[in-house]
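Throughout this chapter, every protein is written as a compact record of paired, labelled lines. The reader may check this reading against the record printed directly beneath this paragraph:
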Amino acid sequence: MTKKFLSMFLALAMCLSLAAPAGAMEDATAWSDRCTDNARVFTPQEFAQLFSTDELATRSSNRVDSISYSYRMTKKPENSLFADVEMHITLNGQYPITVLGTVNGYLLSNNDILWEGPLDGTVTINNISYSVIVGFAKLESDNKIQASMTIQAVDPASEIGLIIFTFGDTVVTKETYQLIKNVKVSSEEMAVETEEENILRNVRAGSYTSLGFVTTNFAQGSFPIPETAQKATGFFDKSSNRLAVSIVSYTSNVDKYFKNLLGVGTLVETTIDSFSIELKRGSSTSNSYIAGIESFDFDIDNNCGKNVSLNALFEDIMGILGVPTSTISAIFDGLKGAVEESHHTDNTKVSVNFDKYQHANFDNSAPGVPIVFQLAKSTSSSTGSSSYTFTTSIRYQTVLLEADGSQMNFIYINGINASKNVSVTLG
């Protein structure tokens, strides 16, 4: 595999002017005019393999000759720094893709706003379905966009490797990225820990035993990142009927992949974009249920789920699991996330998303970063073992400076979900 990305000679490298004048956001739901651009390909061998109808045929015969796209962005009324984005993309005139997502608005130190975040969708090529993540970036002062596209096989056994390419205009330069880092989060955006939360979370105690772990990669087959993507571990405390599920990240493996791909010395910085931890009750289990997340573990009401301080959510249970205080402090020093909880008695899930002010990395916590689920007996006389399945997901974001130093790309990669069936007996 070549160490540097290739510039593909693709047709129509001009983008049609957009309908709204530069900087105009009055009609936020209007679609942009359709643009056509060239691709800057980071993984040329996998790119050529994917877009060939016959692997034995000349691979250039079915390469993408053009990438056309349009988008619309609608600001959320409750917060001007969040917006929903929808993009319609067509590869080579025959592969339509729709991607959707919510992007963050980042106030820059020059008073502009950078809108950026991942959009998700799927594409079918040669009767095979692939997941698509588009890293969308746009300045408030200009209607041009910058996009990275990651295509991953849905089938873990697929022999197609990771495909990464970028298109659009240069929106985020090295200087723009520095403007993001220069901005400090205002006091209104800082998460506040209440006195009640401090008191409640200090009363936790317990003795957790391991239920086993599972690790997953980014895909199987000949995938170019063979290393681990995540590790999920289950723990159970019979005295309190609490089941903890933890996740360990491997941002260093993603860094290593890009540095091997693009050459040592390339500016690469990988962090966790988002993760989720989910617990499901087995279909045959009726003697217990998921009562919820520990109330003093998970209190997002005061912050409406945004900019929640993660120290209170994780630190006590990590201490019980044997994580040194110094490691906990290093992981959660000022770390905040946008937290969402979905609770049902048979299926409960917690998702955490990070913005670019954060640098989430759980690589150095051996037991992982856990969510604690409270289980309960269906009746006081319920006996026997109960079946549950825990599942974790993780998405990484890599900030990558192109070889000529002209553009910073935000590239997103998913790890394969980690899932394990466990059996517990409630006390």
Helices lie at 44-50, 174-182, 195-201, 251-262, 311-320, 325-332. Residues 198 and 312 are 8 Å apart (CA to CA). The first strand starts at residue 6 and ends at 7. Confidence is low (pLDDT under 50) at residues 1-27, 53-62, 184-203.
